[in-house]
Amino acid sequence: MISQHLIEQARGRIANHVVRTPLAISTSLSERIGAQVSLKLEHRQLTGSFKLRGATNAVLQLSQSERDRGVIAASTGNHGRALSYAARVVGSSATICMSRLVPENKVSEIRRLGATVRTVGSSQDDAQAEVERLVAEDGLSMIPPFDHPHVIAGQGTVGLEIVEEMPEVATVLVPLSGGGLAAGVAAAVKAKRPQATVIGVTMDRGAAMKASIDAGQPVQVKEYRSLADSLGGGIGLGNALTFPMCKALLDDIVLVNEREIAAGVRHAYEKEREVVEGAGAVGIAALLSAKLAHLKGPVAVILSGQNIDMTLHRKVINGLI
Ligand SMILES: *Cc1c(COP(=O)(O)O)cnc(C)c1O
Q1: Record keywords: Lyase included (predicted)?
Q2: Is 51 a catalytic residue?
Q3: Which of the listed residues 142, 172, 189 is the one where a domain comes to its end?
């Protein structure tokens, strides 16, 4: 398991490269819940998500020769952006592999951040095969999106900031997919405040971590399209760290549906004046859905990302989704 000590070290290591995001009281959610609710505005992080913390903590621990050879991942989303940015910061280079079917706007966004994009094949599996080839042939370092000790420790710094600013925190709501954020945050929060409750929130369709915990081992789930696209994907059948950590440290996992996620994005915009992507709004969605009975305050809700297509965002705001 990733210890509090590793998370504190990560914080010092990445401090000059990431933003310490605000923890802001939400009056509208506090009134609604009847307890103080604060929002960790991590969607305002550089590159638009917390993924920068883990990626930065990982690249900073590479040796000079590893940095010279470069880093690699197969991710079209927030991890790809974060790794591209982090690599440039340490003077390394990132290669991001993706299928030829990935839309051009995602490709150009990753290029804009300075990475080399390799488009291969027609699936995420083809992209991952290309990653493995380049790791074997060219000695690039693969930085995975969640199941890696340096990545988990980096994401855990979000939790560290929450307990430091709000030592009396009773409940933390954390968006959950592969579990890097949830594992790191739960480790950090519970080390300082063991009596706090940490609840993972994810979409009801394709909830891989929930299905795996229920099954007692990592399992594969069917994937569906979701407004919370950053929560898609499995946890890996060979999962080494985030599965056991989430199993041990999360008090509960709450599932929200597409309608509830849309309501979360709308609430963030209209009441909090924040542009948040679907994955980033699941904590608000869970609070609004009243699926969390007897919630103890103060509550901290992590808004994890802002990278939503603005045409889609407008549709959600206009109630068309
Ligand atoms: C990656 C991501 C998540 C889920 O994080 P995991 O570490 O995979 O559980 C949540 N929200 C956003 C915006 C993300 O990019």
Answers
A1: yes
A2: yes
A3: 142
